[in-house]
C-alpha cells in the first residue's frame, strides 16, 4: 500500500533567505578556513571544507596542486600507481596534508592503499567507495 504524505511542502519560491548585516567592506575579507577535530582518529584538519571528488577526471594530482594553494582538499582517484604517488609526494610535499588517497572495495584496491600509506605516511587521509 503506498504511503501518502500530506505535510506542507516548501519550495524555493516559498522561502526567502534574508542576508545578515555585515561589517565587511569586501568579499575578499571573508575567511572560509575552518578547523575540524575528528572524534575517532583524534586528528585535526584546518582548511576550506571543499573537497574535489575522487572521480578519475576530477581527483587528480594536477587538481591537488592547484587546490592546495587555497587550502582546498582533493580526494585523489584510485587509479594512480605507487610510483606516481611517490613522484607526486617528492615534488609536492606541501600538498600532502590536503589529500586523501582513494580505495575501492576490492582486496587489490585495499592492498594498493596499504602500499601508498606505507610509502607516504603524510598522506594519512583515506576515502573509499566505488565509482
From TrEMBL:
Protein EC: 1.7.1.7
Please state what the protein is called: GMP reductase
InterPro entries, per database record: Aldolase_TIM, GMP_reductase, IMP_DH_GMPRt
Q: Which Pfam families match?
A: IMPDH (PF00478)
Question: Taxonomically, what lineage is the organism?
Answer: Eukaryota, Metazoa, Chordata, Craniata, Vertebrata
Which GO molecular function annotations are given, in alphabetical order? GMP reductase activity
Which Gene3D superfamilies does the record match to this protein?
A: Aldolase class I
Instruction: Give the record's keywords alphabetically.
Output: NADP, Oxidoreductase
What's the source species for this entry?
A: Homo sapiens (Human)
Domain IMP dehydrogenase/GMP reductase, residue spans? 10-82
What's the encoding gene here?
Answer: GMPR2
Which leading EC class covers this enzyme? oxidoreductase
